[in-house]
Structures are given as C-alpha cells and as structure tokens.
Design brief:
CATH architecture of the largest domain: Alpha/alpha barrel
Radius of gyration: 26 Å
Number of helices: 26
Shape: globular
Number of strands: 20
Strand order of the largest sheet: 1-3-2-4-5
Distance between the termini: 69 Å
Oligomer: single chain
C-alpha cells in the first residue's frame, strides 16, 4: 500500500472525486455542520471548491494548486477549506453557481467560492492559475487578497455578503402566468429556437456545442403536432451529424460530453450517464418516427455501452467516465493512421481510414479522432469498391480496433450511483426494451429499479448517492422526479403493478416534501433537508431536465393512469409558473416544452389486456411501441386484473384476460371500439 505524506478528512468519504483530494496537502473538509462550526470557532472565511470527477480543469487546478505545498500552506493558514462533489450536492452547487455568475458574469467548474462562516458568499471565481497568467490573477494572490480583506475590511465583506444573500433569495422566484396556456407558446418557442439552427452541421448556435437532446425531443413533438417536415429534418440532420462526429465513440458506442467545435468533431472526452440516457431516448423516438436503422443502431450501441461499462453488478448505473487516461486528455480514444493499418492490414486499413477520415497529420494533437467523413455509398464509389464490401470491412475493423483499444489504460470511472441519473437511464432501458424488443434491456431496467427501491431509501425518504455499499444524503427534487419518470416507463413497458405503485408512492412523498403550498411549484430541497442560506426552486432545463419540468410531466402521466386529478392540478401550477420564462427564453426549457405539449394535447390513453403467453398480445403491445406517440400513457395488464383495475382506472371493466387480447384506445373522455388486431389498433392510434 502506498504511503502518503498527507491525509485529510476527505479520506472517509465515498465520492471518487473527494477521495482524489484526500492526500492533498490542503486540509480539506467535507461540507458538514462540524466544518461550518469550525469556521465560526476560528473566525475564518470558508474556501469552498466545487467540482466533479470527469472535469478536466478540476484535475488541472488540483495538480497546479492543491498539490502545491506553498499554496496549500496559504489555504490552511487563512481558510477553512471545503471540497464538494457537485454531483452529490447539486443543492450547494446551484446556490453557489448562481452566486459566481452574479459576481463574474460566467460560471463553470472548478468553482472557487469564498464564504463567511455562515456560508454566505462574498467573492468567487472558477479556475485560477498557480501564478499570474492569461490576464488572470494567480491563486496565491487571490488567497492573500481575500484573506486580507476579510481581516481588515469586515464591514465591506459583511455588506457584500448581505447584498449577495438578497440577490440569491430572488433567484428562482417565479410569478404564475395570468395568461392562458396555449399552443401559441409552443409555436413561438419552436420559431425562436429554429432561428438559431445550424443548417450545415446541425444543432444550434456555434462552438462549443452541447447535444441538444431535450430541444430535439420538443422538435419531434412539433413534428407530430404540426406534421412539420422542417422540424423532423432538423432532428434527423442533427442526430446524424452528432453520431457520425467525434462526439460519438465510433468504436465503443456512447456519447462524449460536448464538442469544442461547431461540427461535432473534437469532443470533451468525458462520458456522462445523463447525456447518454437523454440521447438514447431521442434516437429511440427518431427510430419510431423514421424506422431508420441508423437511429436504431446508435440507440442500441449506446445502451450496450452502458451495460458493458457503466453498470454495477447490483444493478445501479455509474455516473461518468473521465476525459483523461494516463494523464492525457482523449488518449484512450485516438489513433494514428499507422496503428490502424498495422491492425487491419494495408488494404482494409486504408479503406477504414478513408471512411473515418484518418490522416497522417491527424485532427487532434497529431492523432485522429474517428469520425465519418462521407457516406458509405460515396466512400465506396470514390474507392471503387462495393457498398457491401466496404460495410463488412468497416464493421470488422470497428470490432478489431475496439478489442485492441480494450488493452489500453482506460479513463477513470466515477462509480457512484446517483438516483436522478439512474432514473433517466432506467426510462431509456425500459423504452429501449419495448421499442427494440430486447428482453435483456428489460432485465437491466428491472434490476435497476429494484436496486434503487431496495438500496436508495431510508426512513421513507429517497437517498441521493450510493457507493461501496453505502447509500447517503437526502434525495433532491430531481431524484424523486427522474426516478418516478423511469418507473412509469417501466410500468408501461412491462405491465407490472409494482412499478406504478412505487411511482405513486414516491410522487406522494415528493409532494409532501417539496411542494410550496404558498406559491406553488417544487423546491429543490425537501422540508427535512438541512437548512442552507436559501431554499430555491429550479425551473431551467440545463444538462438534465429541471426537477420541476420532469415532475410536471410525470404528474400529468400519473393523473391519466390513476385518475388522481390533484396530480394534474399541481402539474398545471408548475407549467403556469414556468410559462413567462418559457416565453422569454424558450431554448432553456426543452423538457418543459415537451411537458407543456403533453398538457395541451388530448393524450391517448391505451389499455391492453391479455394473457402473457398469447402471441397476439405481443403484436398489440409491439404496435403501440413501434408508433411514435409522444403524448400517451399505456396500461398493460397480463395478470391479476382485479388488483390492476383497482389501482389503474384505465383497466376497469376491461377483463379480457381469459378471452382474446384486446386494446382499448381513449382520449378526451371518449373511447373507441375495442380492437384485437394490430391493423385495427394502428388505425386508431394514427387517426387525425
């Protein structure tokens, strides 16, 4: 076992990110009441550093500053130093990210905040270099200046902190819209977002480009609602550009975090669970619309990647994979032309390199990020080979290079299991199982749901994070909402009552813990959570859906399945609170716009009843899942009809278990004729 010169209080944490800092010379502490009390007792300001495991610049600042003994000495003498994993504590991250954006006009990670012993920010920034450079003050200069200001200008520090606290309390305040919620909000949002579309490379705006999964889902909704070929074309083009670019791992499947350029070529190489959950669902829905095998392949490869590399034996999904391996960003993923030719042979290697635009010069630090330079047909024509031959060479080459790559040193993996992100991926596996007819995906989804229900609850409350057999930290709104969303999808895909019952139980607990009885909407933290300097609400859809967005849609779905109109009322309140902001900043509300589209539509209510052993039931179920219906709920019953009907009103008086399988389609309080064949069912689902 390696001897370490330094060991600090982070050694007892489970977060891989915090453990990475456990042997810094900095006297780091986790966020806790004891640490805040220490700052009070010593009358020292708090230096709060927030980051996450897959963050490249977090690692840079650690190496440059936190491993530097002279800088650590300055930190230890003048501050109580707290390290936070933003993925474990999104509540703290949200508060202090708002603060740093107010102070500096921008945000990001690593985040470096200076707080009073009460936790109120008075100065902050993001990355600081170890000495003055790039027109930036070096970290030692910042430390000395802040420490001196705290000692010699206490009144000014107090005034700044008081002012900042007032500003933070105003963030997240939203006034309910007095106007009707109408389709015009959706149409206006679509027009404004589409105006920023990149017609060459797909996506929106310029570099850097993040995968706009939620916005593209809204565009698919728009295509369905308005039969807009333009909306569909934007989704198709963007999805192909992303999946053929370096943003997508051409050998192993799965998407990297974002592209540093406008053409999706050079990614930031970390892979995040939430990106791959949201993007998988997007490609599954695109496959439903177009029946394009390309969309199916990308969804399937991404889910297979998660099974292979991001799934714990107990059923949980890991959080992320780093960008770096052996201390070099992207090293695991890039190739020289010679490496490929040596592996595949001269003939096949040259063809492979032509297809993936691999050159001697390279496109990333003298190496090559694999990306599709031109279509299979165009490449085959240019090289004088058949499409069939080239396709076989590409497929065989991908498999061989993947096997070779597996022998390389892999990027680090953050193996903590986060409930919210697991809920998103649970929904993707549930839908993937049904849409692609993959029983193995269903097993993955059910194992994950069982794991979360068994391991991530304590005292009737959901927990946030799990690592090394230990679950801890109160769950946040997004943990409840994302898990509920995944459970509803799993119920729709399997018909097992356990999943819808768990979703309802969690929804009731979410309302009890997070609902604002005075102004409506959901708080970020529950009423049993520790008291922080503000208790805020989050409405913007950022890298993941906001807790309010996904809670709103989940409650709308549950209202249809259970008949509980209180769910519908609360979802309506949430949408009204967001409506004015959606009108002003539609691109920040991709998921909320999908929820609003569901609310304004007359969603299909589909009940399917039949014996599980009857192949005709499979045909009816498959018909539903092969059809793109963004606004619908599905109640499937294959056993215990009386119990199911008692919980899901959609199944009442529809006991055909002992008869032939039957589908019932209703909308807007009106039901169509019960049908028994997929042909009859598809007519009802696509009518109008």
């Amino acid at each position: 076992m390696k001897d370490h010169k330094y060991t600090n209080a982070l050694i007892d944490e489970t977060s891989p990110y915090l453990l990475q800092h456990a042997h810094n010379p900095v006297d780091w502490h986790p966020w806790s009441e004891e640490t805040l009390a220490k700052a009070h007792a010593e009358n020292k300001p708090i230096l709060l550093s927030i980051g996450y495991s897959a963050c490249h610049w977090c690692h840079v600042m650690e190496h440059e500053s936190f491993e530097n003994e002279a800088i650590a000495k300055l930190m230890n003498e003048n501050f109580v130093n707290i390290k936070v994993d933003r993925e474990e504590r999104p509540d703290l991250d949200q508060i202090y990210m708002n603060a740093v954006q107010m102070m500096t006009g921008h945000g990001g990670w690593p985040m470096t905040m200076f707080l009073t012993p009460d936790g109120v920010p008075f100065y902050g920034g993001t990355y600081f270099p170890p000495e003055d450079r790039y027109n930036m003050a070096g970290f030692p200069r910042v430390l000395m200046s802040v420490a001196e200001a705290y000692r010699s200008q206490p009144d000014q520090v107090a005034n700044t902190a008081t002012s900042m606290l007032g500003e933070l309390r105003r963030v997240g305040l939203a006034e309910s819209s007095r106007e009707m919620l109408t389709i015009e909000i959706l149409d206006s949002a679509y027009r404004r977002i589409a105006a920023n579309y990149d017609r060459v490379h797909g996506g929106f705006g310029g570099a850097p480009k993040f995968p706009p999964s939620m916005t593209l889902e809204f565009f698919l909704h728009t295509y369905h609602r308005r039969n807009s070929s333009e909306a569909l074309e934007m989704v198709q083009h963007t999805c192909r550009q992303m999946a053929e670019g370096g943003m997508y791992d051409q050998l192993g499947g799965g998407f990297h975090r974002y592209s540093v350029d406008a053409q999706w070529l050079v990614p930031h190489f970390e892979k995040m669970l939430y990106d791959n959950a949201l993007l998988t669902r997007l490609y599954l829905h695109l496959f439903q619309v177009t029946k394009d095998d390309f969309a199916r392949r990308i969804a399937q490869e991404t889910l297979d990647y998660v099974v292979r590399e991001m799934t714990d034996a107990a059923g949980g999904f890991y959080s992320s994979q780093d960008a770096d391996s052996e201390g070099v960003e992207g090293k695991f993923f890039v190739w020289s032309r010679q490496e490929i030719v040596d592996a595949l042979g001269e003939h096949n290697g040259n063809l492979f390199c032509e297809y993936f635009d691999v050159t001697e010069r390279g496109n990333f630090e003298a190496k090559n990020i694999l990306h599709v330079g031109s279509s299979l047909e165009d490449t085959a024509k240019r090289l004088g080979v058949s499409v069939e031959e080239l396709s076989k060479i590409i497929d065989a080459g991908r498999r061989k290079l993947f096997d070779i790559r597996e022998r390389r040193v892999k990027p680090g993996r953050d193996e903590k299991v986060l409930t919210a992100w697991n809920g998103l991926m649970l929904g993707s596996f549930a839908e993937g199982a049904a849409i692609l007819n993959r029983p193995d995906y269903r097993q993955v989804a059910e194992a994950n749901a069982s794991f979360l229900l068994d391991q991530m609850q304590k005292n009737d409350l959901l927990l946030r994070t799990y690592k090394d057999g230990q679950a801890k930290l109160n769950g946040y709104l997004e943990d409840y909402a994302c898990f509920i969303d995944g459970l509803i999808s799993l119920y729709e895909a399997t018909g097992k009552l356990r999943w819808i019952q768990a979703a309802v139980s969690l929804a009731d607990k979410m309302i009890e813990q997070f609902w604002d009885e005075d102004a409506g909407g959901f708080y970020f933290t529950g009423k049993d959570h520790e008291q922080l300097i503000v208790r805020s609400k989050e409405f913007l859809d950022n890298a993941t859906p906001s807790g309010n967005s996904i809670a709103g849609l989940s409650l709308l779905r549950l209202a249809l399945l259970t008949g509980n109109q209180d769910y519908h009322r609360r979802a309506t309140d949430v949408l009204r609170l967001m409506a004015n902001q959606i009108r002003r900043y539609p691109s920040a509300f991709g998921f909320a716009l999908c929820a609003l589209d569901f609310y304004l539509d007359s969603p299909h209510e589909i009940a399917i009843v039949g014996a599980a052993s009857d192949s005709r039931l499979d045909e009816l179920v498959s018909t539903v899942w092969q059809t793109y219906l963004p606004n619908r709920v599905v109640a499937l019953c294959t056993e215990a009809q009386a119990e199911a009907a008692a919980f899901v009103p959609l199944l009442r008086e529809r006991n055909t278990l002992n008869d032939q399988p039957t589908a019932f389609v209703c909308e807007a309080y009106t039901c169509q004729t019960p049908v028994h064949s997929s042909g009859e069912l598809i007519k009802q689902l696509t009518r109008g």
